[in-house]
Amino acid sequence: MKSMQEIEPFAKARKRMVESQIKARDVHDPRVLKVMERVPRHLFVSEEMRPDAYEDHPLPIGFGQTISQPYIVALMTSLLDLKGSEKILEIGTGCGYQAAILANLAAEVHTIERIKNLADSAGINLASLALTNIHIHVGDGSLGWPEAAPYDGILVTAASPAVPANLIEQLKTGGKLVIPVGERWRQILELWTKTSQGIEKKEILPVVFVPLRGKQGWQDAN
């Protein structure tokens, strides 16, 4: 059992993170802010990275992957406009931090990771928080996870050269897809909403993400 002296520095760091990095950049969903302040981001990075866990930048998590900047995690989550009853698909589990945020805001989360070692590590991280509404799968995230479709929302934490058709197909009518789309080192974060009349697309802001590997993503090694 950690002492209050050990826990408190991280609690203060999370509060500063939310105030200075997230609220200051116009993410104001109270449910998202509350969860960002509560979920222990430092538990999802290596021991040597923990002093930087609440800083305003992504961090490496191994295998050429990263944990996203806190602001980006909060922004992408807020774009899904979650109320608590939704079933969500996340593409790119990584260390499990984004899945933990989603699991605190939705009823059910399915998350896919192509690298088994990362998926296993994420499972350990998430189990430590006693989150029981997350299902981790190993596979090609660009194809989605049709076994549990349709989804109220899909969040993609890797960049694709185009929006994978499978992900649009797996959305419910009224569902939202948040995804970085573009070139290898330059993308636009996009919000796609599936309506009864078709698809509505909104461009949010420029970003740079690791590539989405797979049949409907990047297939090269660069």
Percentage of residues in helical conformation: 25-40%
CATH topology type: Rossmann fold
Order of helices and strands: HHEEHEHEHEEHEEE
- Total DSSP helices: 6
Low-confidence stretches: 1-6
Largest sheet properties = 7 strands, mixed
**CATH architectural category:** 3-Layer(aba) Sandwich
The total of beta strands comes to 9
Q: Structural class, from helix and strand content?
A: alpha/beta
Description:
It is a single chain. The protein has 222 residues and is of the alpha/beta class. It has helices spanning 4-22, 30-38, 70-79, 97-103, 116-127, 165-169; strands at residues 59-62, 65-67, 87-91, 108-113, 134-138, 151-156, 171-183, 186-195, 198-207. The strands form 2 sheets. A 7-stranded mixed beta sheet has the order 5-4-3-6-7-8-9. Helix 1 packs antiparallel against helix 2. The chain starts with a helix and ends in a 15-residue tail after the last strand. The model is unreliable at 1-6 (pLDDT under 50).
Short descriptors:
Rossmann fold, alpha/beta, two-stranded antiparallel sheet, 222 residues, 6 helices, seven-stranded mixed sheet, 9 strands
Q: Layout of helices and strands, plus pairs?
A:
Elements (H helix, E strand, L loop, with lengths): L3 H19 L7 H9 L20 E4 L2 E3 L2 H10 L7 E5 L5 H7 L4 E6 L2 H12 L6 E5 L12 E6 L8 H5 L1 E13 L2 E10 L2 E10 L15
Helix pairs in contact: 1-2, 1-3
